[in-house]
Amino acid sequence: AHLRRRSDGGWHTTWLDGPALGPEKPAAGRVFAAIVDSDNVTHVAYSTDSDRSLWYGTNGGGSWSRSRVDGVPAGRVGDALAVSKWQGRVAIVFEDHTSGKLGFVHGAPAVWKLEWIEGQAAAELGGSVQISAFQSKIAVAAYDRAGGDLVVATRTNAGQIGQWVTGVVAGRDPATGVDEGDVGLPNAMTRAPTGELIVAFRDATNNEVVVARSKDGHTTFSTAADGKFVHETLKVTRSRLVGTDLSVALLASSRVVVAFQDASRLRIGYCIEKADGTFATTYLPSVGRPQLAPQIFPRIDGGASLSFVELTAGTSAGGTISTVAISGAGSGQ
Fold first, then answer.
1. pLDDT tens sequence for the chain (333 residues)
2. Which of 81, 118, 139, 244 could form an S-S bond across to 94 if both were Cys, CB 3.0 to 4.6 Å?
3. What is the DSSP string of 1-43?
4. pTM for the full predicted model
5. Half-sphere exposure of 268 (CA within 13 A, CB side)
6. In this structure, are residues 29 and 53 in contact, taking their beta carbons and an 8 Å threshold?
């Protein structure tokens, strides 16, 4: 497991765990998540590959440290996790490899508190998980492997183990129970200053990237991108596989911007919300190099930065991390 972090002095690489620190160290970091908080401190959650145990690393003490998260047994961390800060403490959510639940730990090394988040009957939560912290509430988005639904769980009381409220956001009509398709894998989440929760997700049934905006029990949906396109020469409609990886952020104008992967061409695109609520899509230029792993972040100037991996053509390993600046007006460069 290693980190690449950029500052004014350029990119810096730190090896946090794994064989790079010594041949006796097991492989680690295939499943990981990281954030940088408002104090410019990095927080990393990851699992070891061999025994699926949960670990936490930070540079908050001036140098890097890591420790196993107490209370989470080995063999429990699945293929998805996320990390955030809530009420001044670290919060980690992870897919439980054995039970179909989500694990939620909150606190700090040696004082972690573990809770379990359950879906409805027979739900298998995981695949893709996100976490978003409000001042008095925390929200977790996840995919239900059993039902093919997008699920959001929330709780409010930070000082003690709380009661999670879990509901289906998309995939099954909450009133009738009618299955409306396979949605929510993957998903990405952010929040607006107004308290609105914003979740972008892939609708696999309709081959679309959808944005859900939810506040005070009311949720609206908008299609940000779809797979349909007209071939410029043949003038026939074809389909692209959009949203197989994605990330979401807000511009200063409160417009949503979603970065996504088109897996049929291994290209990265981004969609920006327009004044009328519809979205305009732009694909990044490519010279035949596969583009993967889009991540989009708001910038202090009101725009956003879109980072992605671009592999070296003709190889299975090696490449570069590239970053595109998207202005507050929506243009990329």
1. 545 555 555 667 788 888 888 888 888 888 999 998 889 899 999 999 889 999 999 998 888 899 999 889 999 999 999 999 998 899 999 999 999 999 999 988 888 999 999 988 788 999 999 999 987 889 999 999 999 999 999 988 654 556 899 999 999 877 777 888 999 999 999 999 888 999 999 999 999 999 999 988 899 999 999 887 655 555 555 678 999 999 999 998 889 999 999 999 899 999 999 999 999 999 999 878 899 999 999 988 889 999 999 998 665 667 888 899 998 665 544
2. 81
3. -EEEEEETTEEEEEE-SSGGG-TTSPPEEEEEEEEE-TTS-EE
4. 0.89
5. 28
6. no
Q: What does the alpha-carbon distance between residue 81 and residue 266 come to, in Å, rounded to a whole number?
A: 24
3-class DSSP state for residue 172? strand
Query: What are 78's two structure tokens?
Result: 């699945």
Query: Nearest-CA neighbor of 306 among 286, 280, 326, 279?
Result: 326
In angstroms and rounded to an integer, the radius of gyration of the C-alpha atoms of the chain is 20
Question: What are the phi and psi torsion angles at 20 (to 5°)?
Answer: -65, -20
Distance from C-alpha of 192 to C-alpha of 286, rounded to nearest angstrom: 32
Note whether 299 and 319 are within 8 A (CB).
no
Q: CB-based burial of residue 303 (10 Å sphere; 0-12 exposed, 13-18 middle, 19+ buried)?
A: buried
According to DSSP, residue 288 is labeled S
Residue 94: both structure tokens together: 């992870």
How many Cβ atoms are within 10 Å of 293's Cβ, its own excluded? 14
Q: Across-strand partners of 130?
A: 141
